[in-house]
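Quick one: DUF2254 domain-containing protein from Rhodococcus rhodochrous, C-alpha cells please.
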Amino acid sequence: MTGESTGHTNPLEVLRRRRRVLAEALRSRLWPLPAVAVLLAVLAGIGVPELDTAVDDHMPPAVAGYLFGGGADAAREVLGAIAASLITVTSLTFSLTLVTLQLASSQYSPRLLRTFAADRVVQRTLALFLSTFIYALTVLRTVRNETGTDTNEFVPQLAVTLAYALTVASVVALVLFLGHLVRQIRIETILDQVRADTCATAAHILPRATADSGPAQPLPEPPPHAHLVDATGSGFVIEIDEHAVLTAAVHADALVRIDRPVGSPLVAGTPIARCWPVHPPHPLAGETSDRLADRIRDAVRTGSERTTAQDVGYGLRQLTDVVVRALSPGINDPTTAVHGLVACTAVLVELLPARLGPYTVCDSDDRARVVIARPTFADLLDLVCTQPRLYGAADPDVAEALLSMLHLLARKASTEEHRTAIHDQLVLVRARINDHDGATRRHLERRARDAEEAVTHRWLSRGPAPRPSDPP
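--- reply ---
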C-alpha cells in the first residue's frame, strides 16, 4: 500500500491547525459572540456614565446641542422604551432563527444546522440586539432625580444618546437580517456556502500534488504482533493531533498507524490504531505500549458531531444528504437534487489536484513514524454517487447530472487512480440506464458514451488501457 509522506511536523503548522479547530468550534455556536457583546455592553453601561460625569461641565455648546437634552424622567422613559422594544425584537429574531433551523433540518438535512448556526449575520444581529438591551438597562440605573440638597439630578447625556444610536442601528440591522434570512434559506445559497466551506477546508489541510512530487511511497505495514489501541469513548473523530502522535512515537521508538480517518464514527472499545517497535521482532514493553496507547487516545479527539475543521468528507456528506432528501417521495424535488450534484462536482474538481489517501508523518531524520488514514478520491466519489444513483437514477435529470459529473471529472483527471474510480462509477450508472425508455434512454446512452470516451482518451494518453466496461 502506498501513500503520501508529509515530512516532519512544523510546530507553527500544528498551532495553526489547533487554532482552526478552536475557531471552528466557536464559530458554529450561536452564544459566544452575543455573550461577548453583552459583557461589553455592561462595561459600557458603567463606563460611559462615568465619562458623562467627567465631561458634562466642559462640553462645548456645539456638541451639547446634538446630545440628549431632557431631564431625568425623560431619560428613564427613553431608556425603558429602548429596553422593552429591544427584548421584543430579540425574541422575534430568535423565533425566526429557530424556524429557519427547523426548515433546514426537515427540508434539506439535519447536518446543515451547524452551517446555519455559524452564520455571522445571525450572530452579529443577536449580539447587537442583546447588547443594546443590556446597555439601556445598565445606564438606566445611573439616572437620578433631584431629591434634596445632597442628591443632585444626574442625566448621562452621552450614555442616553449612545443608547439612541444603538437603537437606530438595531432597526437597520433588523431590516438587513430579514433580507438576509430570506436569502439564506434558498437552496442555492445553502449549497454554495457548504461548497465554499468544503473547498476552504481542503485548501487548508490537503497538500497539492505537483509534477515533482514523485511516486507515492510505500506505507509501513503493521506486523502480526502489533499492539492494538482501543477507543475509550464513542462519537466521531473530529481531530487528530499529528504532532502529539509523532512525539509519542519517537519517544517510544515505535511506529504508529491510525486506522480511523477524521470524520469516521467510533464506538468505545473498538480499535482506532496499531503500534509496533521500529526494530521487530521484539514487541513493545508493556509499560511503554500502555503509555504510548494513552497518548494516542489523547491525540485522537472525538465529538458528538462531525465538523469541517479537518474533515473534507463532511461537506460532501452534507451536499449528498441534500440530494437524497430532495429525491425522497415526501419532497420529490429533482431540480434541487441536480443543483446538489453540481455543487458536489465543483468540490470534487477542486479535490482532483489534492493528495488524498493515507499519509505518513516523519521525524526529524525523515523516517516514517506515523501513518494516518485519510479518504481516497475513490472513497469521496463513491460517497457522492452511491445514494443518488440508488434513489434517483430513475429520474432522467438526476441520471444526466451524474453522467455529466463523471464526464467533467474524466476530462480533468490526471492519475490512474482518478480514472479508475471514475470508470467504476460510470459502469454502475450505465447499468441503470436500462430503466429508461425511448428517447430518454438514447440521450443518456450518448452522455454515457461521451463520459466513457473522456475516460478512455485520458487513459490512453496518460496511462494503461481501460478495462472493458460491463454492458448496460
